[in-house]
Write a structure and sequence with these properties.
Layout: H1 2-9, H2 11-34, E1 45-49, E2 52-55, H3 56-73, H4 81-108, H5 114-122, H6 128-133, H7 144-156, H8 162-188, H9 195-206, E3 208-217, H10 230-239, E4 245-246, E5 250-259, H11 264-283, H12 287-294, E6 303-305, H13 311-319, E7 325-331, E8 334-346, E9 349-357, H14 359-362, H15 365-380, H16 385-392, H17 396-399, E10 404-409, H18 415-423, E11 429-434, E12 437-447, E13 450-461, H19 466-481, H20 488-495, E14 500-505, E15 511-512, E16 515-516, H21 519-525, E17 538-539, E18 543-553, E19 556-557, H22 560-588, H23 594-601, E20 606-611, E21 617-618, E22 622-623, H24 625-631, E23 643-644, E24 648-658, H25 667-692, E25 695-697, H26 699-702
Antiparallel strand pairs: 1-2, 1-25, 3-20, 3-24, 4-19, 5-14, 5-18, 6-13, 7-8, 8-13, 9-10, 9-12, 11-12, 15-16, 17-18, 21-22, 23-24
Helix pairs in contact: 3-4, 4-8, 10-22, 22-23
């Protein structure tokens, strides 16, 4: 009864709370069901630029495309983390460039017209993006026929088809590039250099100054004799405040690397393996298959010119007779062996045309081969190759040009096609099978002549064995297990490992002081607090890393406390300079020459000759901008006032100037200066636009 009475007495309050909870649950459920929960609203955004969000799926697709392009440029294989990071950076730069320019381009009314766009796509000199997108995979050259075929195909597809989206994206990219070029040209055309500026530049680079100087070095004042006050720090900080603006958030780390790189024992193990493979390769009767199965790198089984093997292997391959197995040689951390299969003298490049048949649409390989032989027979009887290519070839890229492939060197075509084209003679018509289908090839011309070698190559990467990896990991585990927030250096000293430091690490970093580290380690560092030790041992291919966050620098103006230790040596020298300036001023009292001042200071004047304003270096001392700048403002034979330099306090006296001959024609000077300014201008404009923009960068969450 007591509980029921309590409910009756508190009914109003209970109902209000219940209704409030129901409304909250309803709204929360609606948010969850309708879209992304409010607490994770931006979880799929790589970032935003001036309010334009960048979706991770769209961004990642472009990163994959760029990475694949890099991979192909590197000859295949796996991209290392640095190259993947560079791909991310390049795609982000493209987004930045497009979005930052969009408002500027719209504001001043720049556009790309229909005729202009058509010329960029199908004109005599198409955009490089178009040329790259429609390259013949066999020749690597721009294929206009392939472009025209794609445009025709897109025109027949229904709206919403994936090909439409791809084509629209490519056209937009071409227009963006053209708008960027127009905007850049507009800025560049506004740059000019006056005759007065050219004359001044000429003088700064050619007028010579000869002078004497007395230097009181900062090291002559013991550190213990100066005391640095808060005002000393503040004075330097306020004078150089713009230097201490952090463009993006950074971290300072101390870390220990436990190296598991291959040891001499690992090298010996891999050498034993490659020696065993050498013996087996020498006895093998299926050389190409044996090499393909046992090699870490799948080398093409084709004829190659001298210089196309690795340098160490190249010399051996071209000296040894056919049937010999050479090596092992050590190249870039891997052992290589090779069996010389054949050698001959052949052309350096071939000009050819082809007709490609698809066995699947011809009723099978036998029927396709018979058809190819028939077409070959017609060609040999005088029928037009170009006409037959247009009629029968399934290679849309070349058939429109009568099957022409242009001129190609060794290594540009698939092996079966290459062997057929290079083994034939000029004028021959041959049939070859490849993964693309059956080719009828006409050799139009063969250019050059070199000795070539076909070899079965096997390589084995020298990698770390289990013992090496376990030894490094055990050391890392021992170190990690003894750590807390305050004993990082102490434990390192006890265990005899070196502590490394890396300052101002950015969120997208992949290297710490030249050492490749896992991206997960950097991501952890940007989620950790100052003093935190890494939550685990981070592992790369041959290294284990344990780290500690020693400092956090937020984006924007850094406070004095954040840079105090960094500027301390400079501030100390400024305080020392006050003492040294007082000494020089006292010695200069009543003196009329630098020799007299030097005598009072116990320092003989030194000479500096043929110094130019544009290169303010005092030979044997340092770059001294303030000192050399003062020199060019002095009259000869008059000692200067004390000058605070980078190495100490100076007093100087000009002995004379050597003026250059007056320039006859400033046109070349003005042109050179204009070009130099043009090269610097775009980066400055981009920086200005970037500083004004509202940019949110979340890349570190995903990459």
């Amino acid at each position: 009864m007591g509980f029921m009475n309590y409910l009756r007495n508190r009914a109003g309050l209970v109902i209000v709370i219940f209704i409030g909870f129901a409304i909250f649950a309803f709204l929360l459920g609606d948010v969850i069901n309708y879209g992304t929960p409010f607490w994770a609203r931006h979880q799929n955004q790589v970032g935003s630029i001036n309010g334009e969000t960048i979706d991770i799926n769209e961004f990642n697709a472009q990163v994959d495309q760029t990475s694949e392009m890099f991979r192909q440029q590197m000859g295949g294989g796996t991209l290392n983390p640095q190259m993947k990071s560079y791909a991310v950076q390049q795609v982000w730069g493209q987004y930045l460039n497009r979005e930052l320019l969009k408002n500027e381009v719209g504001r001043i009314g720049l556009t790309v017209g229909k005729t202009e766009l058509n010329d960029l796509v199908q004109g005599d000199n198409p955009s490089m993006q178009i040329q790259q997108a429609f390259r013949n995979p066999q020749t690597g050259q721009f294929d206009r026929g392939q472009l025209n075929g794609f445009i025709s195909q897109v025109g027949t597809l229904p709206p919403g088809h994936e090909a439409h989206a791809q084509w629209d994206a490519l056209l937009q990219s071409v227009m963006d590039e053209q708008l960027s070029t127009k905007y850049t040209n507009l800025i560049n055309n506004s740059i000019y250099v006056t005759a007065l500026e050219a004359n001044e530049e000429y003088s700064q680079r050619n007028k010579l100054a000869n002078f004497e100087y007395v230097l009181l070095d900062y090291e002559s004042v013991p550190d213990s004799s100066v005391t640095l006050s808060d005002q000393d720090y503040k004075a330097y900080y306020n004078e150089n405040k713009g230097v201490f603006k952090n463009e993006e958030e950074t971290r300072n780390l101390e870390y220990v690397v436990f190296d598991a790189s291959p040891t001499a024992q690992d090298t010996a193990r891999v050498r034993t393996t490659i020696e065993e493979l050498k013996a087996q390769l020498a006895e093998s009767t299926t050389d190409s298959l044996f090499a393909a199965v046992n090699s870490d790198t799948k080398y093409p089984y084709i004829f190659r010119k001298q210089g196309e093997f690795s340098p160490a292997l190249d010399t051996l391959v071209f000296r040894a007779p056919v049937g010999t197995t050479v090596g092992p040689v050590l190249t870039n951390g891997r052992f290589e062996i090779a069996k010389i299969i054949d050698t001959k003298v052949g052309p350096d490049s071939v000009k050819a045309s082809h007709i490609l048949l698809n066995p699947a649409t011809e009723g099978g390989m036998d029927k396709a081969k018979a058809k190819a032989d028939s077409i070959k027979g017609l060609i040999e009887k005088g029928e037009s190759f170009a006409a037959l290519a247009v009629q029968f070839s399934v290679d849309e890229g070349s058939k429109i040009n009568g099957g022409e492939l242009g001129t190609f060197a060794r290594g540009m075509m698939v092996p079966a096609f290459e062997n057929a084209a290079f083994d034939a003679k000029k004028g021959d018509v041959v049939v070859a099978n490849s993964q693309f289908g059956i080719h009828i090839i006409k050799v139009e011309d063969q250019i050059g002549s070199s000795r070539v070698v076909k070899a079965a190559v096997i390589d084995k990467q020298i990698n770390s064995g289990k013992e090496t990896m376990n030894a490094a990991y055990n050391k890392a585990t021992q170190f990690f297990g003894a750590l807390n927030k305050n004993n990082f250096q102490e434990v390192a000293t006890q265990q005899g490992v070196s502590v490394l430091k890396a300052d101002n690490i950015t969120a997208m970093e992949t290297m710490l002081m030249g050492t490749e580290v896992p991206r997960e380690l950097v991501r952890w560092a940007f989620e950790a607090d100052k003093g935190d030790v890494s939550d685990k041992i981070y592992e790369s291919e041959t290294k284990y890393v344990v780290a500690r966050v020693t400092g956090i620098r937020e984006k924007g103006q850094l406070p004095l406390e954040a840079v105090k230790s960094e500027i301390e040596p400079i501030v100390r020298n400024r305080v020392k300079a006050k003492k040294l300036i007082a000494q020089v001023a006292e010695a200069a009292n009543g003196a009329t020459t630098i020799a007299q001042i030097g005598e009072k200071l116990g320092k003989a004047p030194a000479s500096a000759e043929n110094i130019v304003f544009a290169n303010p270096v005092i030979p044997g001392v340092a770059q001294e901008n303030a000192v050399v700048g003062t020199v060019f403002g002095l009259q000869p034979k008059q000692p200067s006032k004390p000058i605070r330099g980078s190495q100490g306090v100076y007093v100087v006296e000009v002995t004379g100037f050597v003026n250059p001959e007056a320039p006859g024609d400033l046109s070349a000077q003005k042109k050179q200066m204009t070009q130099a300014q043009v090269q610097r201008t775009w980066s400055r404009v981009f920086r200005a636009l970037q500083d004004k923009a509202d940019i949110v960068d979340n890349r570190a969450r995903f990459f």
